[in-house]
Amino acid sequence: MQAIEADSLVVRLGKRNAVNGLSLRLGHGVHGLLGPNGAGKTTLIRTLATVQSPTAGTLSLLGTPANGRLKAVRRKLGYLPQHFGYYKRFKVREFVEYLAWLKEMPSARIPGAVHTALERVGLTDRAEDRMKSLSGGMVRRVGIAQAIVNDPEVLLLDEPTVGLDPAQRLRFRELVAELGRDSCVLISTHLVEDVAAACTDVVLVNEGSLMFQGTPADLATAGTAQHVGDSPIERGYSALISANSAGGAW
Ligand SMILES: Nc1ncnc2c1ncn2[C@@H]1O[C@H](COP(=O)(O)OP(=O)(O)OP(=O)(O)O)[C@@H](O)[C@H]1O
Q1: 240 lies in some domain
Q2: Which residues form the ABC transporter domain (predicted)?
Q3: Does 123 fall in a domain?
């Protein structure tokens, strides 16, 4: 059994299939989810997080079909949405505690788990500050803290490094490498270099379909000097996307 098993997944939004017959298996490790704007990354992550229902196909999370009672499986998930809403008047600690409570963590475990999560994202010294006093990058780090507070077995992070400064991005890479040792971490990003540095595996989607799954080194081999990009892996990405797109350059 793999942590995530999706078969022929379709998610229809409005007039189009944002996810279009996608099959994917992911186990332990850090998986980077890449793809151009509108490829379906956020919709896929929302579906894996059980926030969005699939229109067709099957999804199983940690061996449980994701179409019936979701409570038990949701307790084992961590999810950072692309647009992360929060209550401005909450203190940082209170906010992460509140999310831990929503995840139905046993109350006795919450204070310790919140402390550890804030420590892991380097925000211990801001724990008693109000959310509204944080910078954008710090808010993103609180988002990561709430996603990991329950020690999830499946961690889904939608553009977690947006707004992080270089030192925090390095720290983030170390953190996900640690987490990926015994859980399944899926990270959507536009930063190909984050994938090269932090991920054991790359999942490339385009137009709602799976285009490629393999190691960052495998992705790099797809590129040539003619392809756009500053690094071998960026050129590999460009090669696969340009080979599979209808066009639409601007
Ligand atoms: N609520 C919605 N209603 C209708 N169409 C939608 C909705 N949300 C997304 N879409 C469409 O679904 C497709 C996939 O969008 P999605 O946000 O999943 O892509 P993405 O890969 O995350 O893009 P980005 O990199 O720009 O964040 C796009 O064509 C988008 O326009």
Answers
A1: yes
A2: 4-232
A3: no
For every residue of 57-96, DSSP letters joined together read EEEEETTEETTS--HHHHTTEEEE-SS----TTSBHHHHH
- How many structural domains is the chain composed of? 1
Ligand 1 site-directed mutation target among 9, 11, 34, 41, most atoms within 8 Å of CB: 41
Q: What pLDDT digit, counting tens, does each position of 145-169 carry?
A: 999 999 999 999 999 998 889 998 9
CATH of the domain at 198: 3.40.50.300
Q: Examine residue 2 and state whether it is found in any structural domain, yes or no.
A: yes
Residue 228 falls inside a structural domain: yes
Question: For ligand 1, which residues put their CB under 6 angstroms from it?
Answer: 13-14, 16, 18, 35, 37-43
Q: Which domain holds residue 22?
A: 1-68+188-250
The reported pTM is 0.94
Q: Which protein residue's CA is at the shortest distance from atom 5 of ligand 1?
A: 13
Q: Whose CA is nearest to atom 16 of ligand 1?
A: 40
Neighbours of 229 (CB within 10 A): 16
Q: Are strands 77-80 and 154-158 parallel, antiparallel or unpaired?
A: parallel
Give 202-222 pLDDT, tens digit per residue.
999 999 999 999 999 999 999
Interface TM-score (ipTM) > 0.95:
yes
CA-based nearest residue to 73, from 180, 179, 152: 152
